[in-house]
Specification:
Layout lengths: L31 H13 L4 H18 L2 H15 L7 H17 L3 H19 L4 H16 L3 H17 L3 H21 L3 H16 L7 H16 L4 H12 L8 E3 L12 H4 L7 H7 L3 E9 L5 E9 L7 H8 L2 E2 L12 E10 L2 E3 L7 E3 L4 E6 L14 E2 L2
Parallel strand pairs: 3-9
Antiparallel strand pairs: 1-4, 2-3, 2-5, 5-8, 6-7
Helix pairs in contact: 1-2, 2-3, 2-4, 3-4, 4-5, 5-6, 6-7, 6-8, 7-8, 8-9, 8-10, 9-10, 10-11
Length: 402
């Protein structure tokens, strides 16, 4: 393929405000040996930075897909060492390199590196295109996303408000709509954590801004806001808004790509409590998983039928013991998607593949020494690996990964 790999570098473009944006499962379609040879050949002939970065991303993505996160990270680090100085001449390419490094860092529990890579990505675009270019403004939203994900929603909210203001001044209305949607997600997080009347009113206020006064060119955020409201209502025991959305989509003939209307929060997985049920006294506790078994991953495949229901969720590949992923399968099965368009061809629906990584954040100074440790409570990172055509792979069989 001529275009750059997208799995690790897909930007937080406006479409990410809408559910379930598809990405390739294997973008290059080449084996590891070939992408490794391509990168080596590029370096031997002293290829220009854009070719170096393209070869790096192709190989790093292949390594990530195979489950070799550490080598993927080393490959990206080496390329950053060679190419970060070329940011002014190749701002898009170098920013993609930083973004990919941040994505891998997320799955490895490297919160600080994820944060710094996101900032470097934004700074590269800012220097290359200016502070008010839409690419820079979207990157600012990604910086806000990183702060929210790392546990600083107030900082994220400040960033989103600043982007909204600057985007409106620059007449970048879709970016402003995206920032408004992110502000609504912050309010949703507060309401979920503390479902009080003031928090609900603030959430409703922010959603109303999106649904009642959409910005020019940002009409898709009306749908995004309706979906966010439905997810929130359903989580708190009210399913009427979800039912209305399903009827609305059905009346329009269905959707031609997956639109997730509701997904339950992934419950805490306490493998220690599964010991007796599973008959395995050697199953590790959460703490032992987070310190000794981080980096385990599974690829989950499932069908979305014409009625929006999920069927045949199964683990296609895993890096080892996948008992920790059982709640993930249950969570996926209980999702609610919008009804699909039907062309009378008896299509089975959309086939989705998602990567889940069991990890725990790295923390410094927690033991009073310089030793780096991991948080006791693990987390699960998710990445969409779905093919563009939504078809099942030729052999969607469970296989052990690297």
């Amino acid at each position: 393929m001529s275009k750059l790999p997208r799995l690790l570098i897909t930007a937080a473009a406006m479409a990410l405000a809408l559910p379930a944006v598809a990405q390739d499962i294997v973008v290059t379609g080449k084996p590891l040996t070939e992408t490794a040879a391509n990168l080596e050949d590029c370096l031997k002939r002293k290829c220009p930075p854009n070719e170096d970065i393209a070869a790096t991303l192709a190989h790093a993505e292949n390594l990530f897909m195979s489950g070799d996160y550490k080598t993927a990270q080393r490959t990206l680090h080496a390329s950053l060492g060679r190419n970060r100085k070329h940011g002014e001449g190749y701002p898009m390419e170098v920013s993609d390199l930083f973004r990919a490094n941040g994505r891998v860092a997320e799955h490895m529990g490297e919160g600080r590196e994820y944060q710094l890579s996101t900032l470097d990505m934004r700074n590269t675009l800012k220097k290359g295109f200016g502070a008010d270019d839409f690419r820079t403004l979207v990157a600012e939203i990604e910086v806000g996303d990183s702060r929210a994900k790392l546990g600083y929603p107030e900082e994220a909210e400040k960033i989103y408000r600043d982007v909204e203001k600057r985007a409106l001044a620059a007449k970048q209305y879709r970016v402003a709509g995206f920032a408004r949607f992110r502000l609504a997600t912050v309010a949703r997080g507060r309401f979920d954590a503390e479902p009080t009347s003031p928090n609900r009113k603030e959430l409703d206020k922010r959603l109303a801004v999106l649904t009642d006064t959409p910005l020019p060119g940002g009409e898709e955020f009306v749908l995004a806001a309706k979906v966010l409201r439905a997810r929130t209502d359903r989580k708190h025991g009210a399913g009427a808004s979800t039912d209305e959305l399903v009827k609305e989509f059905a009346a329009k003939g269905g959707v031609d790509r997956p639109v997730l209307l509701y997904s339950e929060p992934l419950s805490r997985i306490d493998l220690g409590s599964q010991t007796q049920a599973d008959g395995d006294s050697a199953r590790p506790s959460w703490t032992r998983i987070s310190t000794n078994r981080y980096g385990q991953w599974v690829d989950v495949g499932f069908w979305i039928g014409a009625d929006g229901k999920v069927t045949e969720a199964e683990i296609l590949r895993s890096s080892g013991d996948d008992a920790w992923a059982k709640p993930v399968l249950g969570n996926i099965t209980r999702r609610v998607y919008a009804p699909l368009k039907t062309g009378g061809d008896n299509s089975p629906g959309f086939y989705m593949i998602e990567r889940y990584t069991l990890t725990a954040r790295v923390v410094d100074g927690e033991t009073g020494t310089r030793l780096r440790t991991r948080e006791a409570t693990p987390r699960i990172e998710r990445l969409d690996l779905t093919q563009d055509n939504y078809e099942a792979p030729p052999k969607a069989e469970k296989a052990e990964g690297a």
